[in-house]
Amino acid sequence: MPSLTITTIAGIPYIRKGDDLAAIIIEGLTHQVQKLDDGDILVIAQKVVSKAEGACVHIDEVTASDQAIQLAKKVNKDPRKVEVILSESKRLVKVHKHPNANEGIIITEHNLGHISANAAVDESNTDTPGELILLPKDPDASAKRIASALSHHYQCRVGIVISDTFGRPWRLGQTNVAIGLANIPALNLLEGELDAYGRPLKVTAPALADELAGASGLLMSKQGKCPVILFKGLEWACQPDSQASDLLRPTKEDLFA
Amino acid sequence: MPSLTITTIAGIPYIRKGDDLAAIIIEGLTHQVQKLDDGDILVIAQKVVSKAEGACVHIDEVTASDQAIQLAKKVNKDPRKVEVILSESKRLVKVHKHPNANEGIIITEHNLGHISANAAVDESNTDTPGELILLPKDPDASAKRIASALSHHYQCRVGIVISDTFGRPWRLGQTNVAIGLANIPALNLLEGELDAYGRPLKVTAPALADELAGASGLLMSKQGKCPVILFKGLEWACQPDSQASDLLRPTKEDLFA
C-alpha cells in the first residue's frame, strides 16, 4: 500500500552566512547512512536558508522612520523592529492591539506576497541577541539552487520545499507553509478529474507544497534543531517551473483584506 | 533519528449508515498484515464518519426558508443547499459573488465553530445524487468512540484525528484540518520553553492536530478511496480531554470577522 517515511536529518550545525546548505545536508545524510533517491523531498526551515544567505539585520543598525515610530506606539513594539517589518512589506493588512495585551499584532503582505504576522521577521533561534531574521530574498531561487546541487550529487530528481511557520486567522496555533519551491508542484490541480464515484471535482486543489511543509512540522520542532526533514516514498509529478507564489490568492480575490 | 511512517489503509469499502468504522479499520489493518501499536495515530476523513453516523440529508427532503431563497439568489446556488448551509451555521462570515463567476461563496461559522466555505456541506464522494454530507454531530465524541474500540482491540493507546478539507483566506488550494480529536493534543503548547539558543519561545504553539490532518492529505487523495491514514513513530503526549474546539480562535479575537 502507498506509504511514506518522514525522517529528520540529525546534526545540522548552527548555520552562518556563507555556509553551503547542500553540502551540510549531504554530510548529515552520509553520517546517518542515508542518501537521496529519485523522488525524495526535503523540507528546509526558512531560518537556515536565511542565515546561510545572510538575510538578517541587526536591530542596532536600523533607524526607525516616522511611520514606524507612530505604528510602534500603537502596538507597543520596538520602532526599529517595526521599521524592518514595514520595509519587508508591501501592504499593512491589519494592525490591532487588545487593551489588555502588552504587545499588538501587525499583519502585513510581505514583499513576496505572503500574508503573516510581523512580515515573517523573526528574532528566535539566533545566537546573536538583537538579530532579526528575514525571509530569503528569493526563496524559490534558493530552493532551486539547493535542489540542483543535491540532484547533481545524488544523480536523481529531488524536490525542495522551504517552509516557514505562520498563524491562521480563524484557528489557533501555527503550521508550516511553503515559501520556496523547487520541482514540487504548489497545488495538486484536480480540476476536470472525477471523484471516486464519477462526479466531477469542481474546485479541488490540495495545496501539496503546504501539506509537505505542514507535515514537516511534526518532526521540525521549533525548540529543537531539526531544520531539514526528509520525505521518502511520496508520488509526485515534477514541475520544474513551480513557485511558492502559485500558493498565493490574488489580492483582488482576497475577501478579508 | 526520529522518523515516522505514514501509510494508507487499503480496501475501506463504501461506508453506509450504521457501519462499524472501528471494525472496518481492524479488518483493513489485518488484511495488510498490520496492527496498531502504542502511540499509533489514525487520521480519518470526516466523510466516512458522517456516512457511518447518517449525518447526511437529501436535497429533495429540504424546504428552503425565505432567508435561504434570498441568499441563494445572491450567490446562484440551490436554495435547498443554502438552507442546509444556514441550518448548519451559527453565523454568516462572508457572502460574495464575483460578477463573472457562475456561483458565489458562502463562508460561515459552523455550529461546531469551524469557519469554512458552505458550512463544510459536501456533495462529492457520495454514490447518491442529491445527497449532502454534513459534519458529524459531535466529531470529538465520534473520535473518542473509535479510539476506545481500537484501544480495546489492540490493548494500546491510540490517537484519532477526524479531518476535513478546508480552504484558506490568503492561500490557494485546500489542506486537511482537524475537526474531531481523541487523545491527540490540539496544540503542542511550547509557552515557557526555550528555543535552541536559550531564548524564551513566546507564543509558539504548533497546531499538532492540524499538522497531522494536513500530513494525511499527502496520501488521502480526494479522488481516491483512502479515507483512513495510519501514522507510526510520532512521539506525542496523550491528552484524554482534548477537543477540536481547542483549535478555534475565539470570535472576540477574530480580526477578520
Q: List the quaternary state of the chains.
A: homodimer
Residues in helices of chain A, as a percent range: 10-25%
Query: Order of strands in the sheet with the most strands of chain A?
Result: 1-10-2-8-9
- SSE order of chain A: EHEHEHHEEEEHEEHE
Q: In the CATH hierarchy, what is the superfamily of the largest domain in chain A?
A: CofE-like
Under CATH at level 1, the class of the largest domain in chain A stands as Alpha Beta
CATH topology of the largest domain in chain A: 60s Ribosomal Protein L30, Chain: A
Which class do the helix and strand fractions of chain A yield? alpha+beta
Determine the strand fraction of chain A and express it as a percent band.
15-25%
Largest sheet: number of strands, sense, barrel closure of chain A: 5 strands, mixed
Query: How many structurally independent domains of chain A?
Result: 2
The poorly predicted ranges of chain A are none
Protein name (chains A, B): Coenzyme F420:L-glutamate ligase
Keywords (chains A, B): GTP-binding, Ligase, Magnesium, Manganese, Metal-binding, Nucleotide-binding, Potassium
Domain Coenzyme F420:L-glutamate ligase-like (chains A, B): 12-233
InterPro entries (chains A, B): F420-0_g-glutamyl_ligase (IPR008225), F420-0_gamma-glut_ligase-dom (IPR002847)
